[in-house]
Automatic annotation (TrEMBL):
Name this protein carries in UniProt: dITP/XTP pyrophosphatase
Cited NCBIfam families: RdgB/HAM1 family non-canonical purine NTP pyrophosphatase (TIGR00042)
Gene3D superfamilies: 3.90.950.10
Sequence positions that bind Mg(2+): 38, 67
Amino acid sequence: MRLVLASGNPDKVREIKEILRDIEVLPLSSFVDEFEIEESGLTFRENAYIKVQKAFELTGLPSLADDTGLVVHGLHGMPGVFSSRFAGENAGYEANRRKLLEALRGMPLSARRAYFICVVAFMEKPGEVRFFEGKVEGFITKEPRGDGGFGYDPIFLYPPLGRTFAELSLREKNRVSHRYRALSRFREYLNESGLSR
């Protein structure tokens, strides 16, 4: 099967290709030189829908999009849908992490409880979208740990392994992550519907 992935983030593309390694996943940039998708939704599901619809419109091929974010209990759910631009519209990974750690400074462990959520949207036919969700619980550390991963991975502690996502290998992370869980449900759908052939 061939899928168009509505993402320009090379880190995300790499992870999704690794998880769906038996499926041909092509980033939207393989079809369109320049594209901009405004994530104007108020929920992860809305943003995933906006992205998958754009990819399908531009290519007419089965398309996949995900919207992912970090939800922190002590910050009333922030950064949430603003995770990638928490420190500003063009902020990088480090600036976002720094702002989050600063916001949590002095807060107790209970306030540092957090979860990553990933909502995957799949469109094969116009107007027909299916959603798949994955979530993983953890805590925000007081300082970054590890050199792997991307985004908030260096400050997201995964308790069952006692390490941050950035301290895990890509293979280890892709066995437990929110993105893996959402894409596993997507893969189950493909198998059950016969679309994976």
